[in-house]
């Protein structure tokens, strides 16, 4: 038969042994027995609040995410909505990059675990960038375009004015001074082939335009498809994660 009191004492002792506490200015830094994706333990910072305790990450979560991600882009679209859901479910609040939770004094331990769980879920949002699914790819592309182009200058699912144009849809037509910019999102070999055919058809029909192709990851394409696509398009962004390249190429074509 299990001795509940003995087990409780064992667990409490093990938990305390794995928790590190040190002073950090006017706060206490507490290292939790929870591991982040980079292998380090999650740390929270405790300070007194009118409610009892404020448990904060001191903006370290956003700092770690910013090393490999554009935060404005990371928290847009579907990931942005999931981020808001995580904040609502955990009770976390954000202020200028700092994530925190205010709890009564008698709920400090529970609060620290809630914060640790929330920080872990928020860090995992970055994994969506690496294991991108189709719906997220197109959502991210749309967000990147609308971050630099007014909505009234963008036409989605544009049908070109050529015979059978409905068979050669253009993901985005962006108005520019000299001629329109046609932007295609390519998330696999099938879309790469269709985009190449569309570009060649438009050129054969005498359309005047510039073109840009944004890929989920060019490394995923067969070499032959990659070669044909690079030859057909004016500009190519090899990976959707390179948000600055997308913005710069669009601004260059619109100048």
Total DSSP E strands: 11
Number of domains: 2
CATH topology of the largest domain: Yope Regulator, Chain: A
What about the largest sheet? 6 strands, antiparallel
Gap between N and C termini: 77 Å
CATH class of the largest domain: Alpha Beta
The CATH architecture category of the largest domain equals: 2-Layer Sandwich
What is the ordering of alpha helices and beta strands? HEEEEHHHEEHHHEEEHEHEH
Q: Count the DSSP helices.
A: 10
Shape descriptor:
elongated
- Secondary-structure-based class equals alpha+beta
**β-strand amount:** 15-25%
Low-confidence stretches: none
User: Strands across the major sheet, in which order?
Assistant: 1-2-3-4-6-5
What would the average pLDDT be, to the nearest integer? 86
Detailed description of the structure:
Strand 9, helix 8 (189-204) and strand 10 form a beta-alpha-beta unit. 28% of the residues are buried. The protein has helices at 4-18, 60-66, 71-74, 77-90, 108-124, 127-130, 134-146, 189-204, 223-232, 243-254, and strands spanning 20-24, 27-35, 41-49, 52-56, 93-95, 98-104, 154-158, 170-174, 181-186, 210-215, 235-237. The protein is an alpha+beta fold and 255 residues long. The chain is built from ten helices and eleven strands. The model has no long low-confidence stretch (mean pLDDT 86). It folds into two domains: 4-130, Yope Regulator, Chain: A (2-Layer Sandwich); 134-254, Restriction Endonuclease, CATH 3.40.91.50. Helix 4 (77-90) runs antiparallel to helix 5 (108-124) and helix 8 runs parallel beside helix 9.
